[in-house]
Specification:
Number of strands: 12
CATH architecture: 3-Layer(aba) Sandwich
CATH topology: Rossmann fold
Largest sheet: 8 strands, mixed
Bound molecules: adenosine-5'-triphosphate, nickel (II) ion
Radius of gyration: 20 Å
Low-confidence stretches: none
Strand order of the largest sheet: 6-7-8-3-9-10-12-11
Structural class: alpha/beta
Amino acid sequence: MSQQNVLNVVDLTVYYYTKRGVIHAVEDVSLTADKMDFVAIVGESGSGKSTLVYALLNLVPPPGRIVKGSIFVDGIDILRLSGDKLRRARGSLISMVFQDPFTTLDPIRRVGDQIAEVLIEHGISKDEAYARVGEVLESVGLSRNIANAYPHQLSGGQRQRVSIAAAIALNPRVLVADEPTTALDVIVQKQIMDLIDRIRLSTGMSIILITHDIALAVERATKIVVMYAGKIVEYGSKQSIIEEPLHPYTQALLASVPDIESGKWPKSIPGTPPDLRNPPTGCRFHPRCPYSSDLCRIKQPDLVGYGKNHYVSCWLYIRK
Ligand SMILES: Nc1ncnc2c1ncn2[C@@H]1O[C@H](COP(=O)(O)OP(=O)(O)OP(=O)(O)O)[C@@H](O)[C@H]1O
Ligand code: NI
């Protein structure tokens, strides 16, 4: 992996230690993002997508714990930081936009004060912070006057723009977003995605976005990460993944995208995702895989390179 990667995740493993057992939510995940990359993380519910991105900011809630791994942003390992250093890294190196802006915005404070506070905490003077608030609100397509509004006076789309403004106010290298548009209607969803893309292209920020919407990933991403049961099963440039999906799970996911032109119904993937307290042996997808063999039941396949910028974890592609 080159030194130039803005984000470099190495062997990240995150478990939840619940009373009913240890949930293997993210296991040995490695991935990279370059400047201006738009990485879409896809996979069924419960596959570990949110756990992975919360870990990127060292924000996994208890009873979750990062068991091992490194997360380098610009060469700095976020997981080796604590206290003030960690707080400063959040926001200036990597920051996050959540699904529901109500969870991040304080309902009883003006939005401008909330954005300014983030800047002041990072050592910026009050005057400079308020000047930056106006600027960053405009950069997300809002008027400067919005600074005086309270969150409830804004529409859902405006609120999400405010949280994006707060997240990018310190010009982080990486912007992480966990399904940032699911609470919004379709037209506003597109506007917010256009905004995120514009920010990426104008600042060079890397975007890491979780989505349930495969069509959105196909439309916007430069890289696609496919997660299944806490593991990356396939990962690569968007082009290579859609032109030549290798993993049977990726093939099934892409086949589940409704084909509007042909009027075909989407195919759902037979079976259900496994219980991560006791994941299947070998390849975690083997119980649902139409191609599974004895080897798949016994031994976990490594994530191996297949062509340029394309990695897959499947025995079908490993010379035995
Ligand atoms: N706070 C928590 N305590 C215990 N287990 C958790 C917690 N958060 C997530 N998990 C478990 O970790 C696994 C991965 O969950 P995660 O939320 O990361 O998946 P996801 O891919 O983001 O799912 P979704 O698409 O539904 O948002 C699941 O088995 C889930 O039940
Ligand atoms: Ni999630």
